[in-house]
Design a protein that fits this description.
CATH superfamily of the largest domain: Lipid/polyisoprenoid-binding, YceI-like
Number of helices: 6
CATH topology of the largest domain: Lipocalin
Structural class: alpha+beta
Helix content: 25-40%
């Protein structure tokens, strides 16, 4: 559970050399980065998890050939081991105590090249209010461009850490005086680094979470042509890779089932006779109330006609809306 500590340094992975126009500061693109950890459990088993919220930055020296500084912040509240009860325990005072120590941080003191594209980072890791020196290794790809043409460097990292060094000592004894949870935490993962001057937009839309977003992305990639495009309501501008509205979509009559129409006309027929009865009853009501003054061609006769016919028209309008406009 305390394994999460390790993850923090993972994100520090930096790139080797960049062109000067991209700037000195490269930041971590969280959409394509991950921090994973693993810790022994019940002697031969293991528990794995990750942190989902973090940020990081790599700074190059003036010559853009050496890594000057790596800094990373992990939000302890974002720990996820796939079990809410266990995650709650990890966030509590037995482990990270996230209310009092919400952040895990790493700041490098030195980054040393080991071999082509391989490095070793030495720095200070702070967890649960305790700061210790730590070292981990990573390797980086060459400068490449993503699908949107943005310069990127991919990296992968791994390392080992002792949770007890940071005061995370909670445990329980099982058979043969063995500990329930191990001490040594392994961490690994990957990161995508991009220049602060040239970032890919936040990608909530890159991994769509609903059918409508998935369909939109397929349209933009040219993998699918929707009915609305076939009806010339939307047009795909391939040059700008955007959908443009040509005409407002016209309402199309609902295709109700035969059972629906049978019920509709049955209720309509019943309603029709009910309205006719109501109209006659309403007319009779006026005659009875204003019997002394009532004349068919007089004021009250005119008012009664307006009211009863209005009731009939409202009913006809309501049936039209229900059957042909909804």
């Amino acid at each position: 559970m305390f394994f999460n500590l390790i993850l923090l340094f993972s994100i520090l992975l930096p790139p080797l050399s960049m062109s000067s126009e991209l700037g000195r500061n490269w930041i971590l693109n969280k959409d394509h980065s991950e921090i994973i950890f693993e810790i022994p459990y019940l002697k031969f088993g293991k528990v794995t998890g990750r942190f989902t919220q973090f940020r990081g930055q790599v700074t190059y020296d003036k010559d853009e050939t050496l890594i000057e500084r790596i800094s990373i912040v992990i939000f302890a509240e974002s720990i996820n081991t796939g079990n809410k009860l266990r995650d709650g325990h990890l966030k509590g005072k037995d482990f990270f105590d996230v209310k009092n120590f919400p952040k895990i941080t790493f700041i490098s003191n030195e980054v040393l090249p080991i071999s082509p594209n391989r490095f070793k980072a030495l720095g200070e890791l702070s967890i649960h209010g305790v700061t210790k020196d730590i070292t981990f290794k990573f390797r980086l790809s060459e400068l490449i461009k993503d699908t949107w043409g943005k310069p990127s460097i991919m990296g992968e990292f791994n390392g080992i850490l002792s949770r007890k060094d940071f005061g995370l000592t909670w445990n329980k004894l099982i058979e043969n005086e063995a500990n329930l949870v191990g001490d040594e935490i392994s961490f690994s993962g990957q990161v995508q680094l991009q220049s602060r001057k040239s970032l890919t937009d936040s990608s909530k839309h890159l991994i769509p979470i609903n059918a409508s977003l998935r369909k939109r992305n397929k349209i933009l990639r040219g993998e699918e042509t929707p009915d609305i495009i076939k009806r010339d309501i939307l047009k795909l501008d391939k040059k700008n890779n955007k959908l443009k509205m040509i005409n407002s979509p016209k309402k199309v009559d609902s295709s109700h089932s035969s059972t629906w129409w049978l019920a509709y006309f049955s209720m309509g027929l019943i309603g029709f006779f009910s309205i006719i009865t109501l109209m006659f009853q309403g007319k009779q009501y006026f005659i009875n109330i204003f019997s002394a003054e009532y004349e068919e061609t007089g004021k009250w006769g005119f008012v009664s006609d307006i009211i009863v016919y209005s009731i009939g028209l409202i009913y006809v309008w309501a049936m039209w809306v229900i059957g042909f406009s909804v």
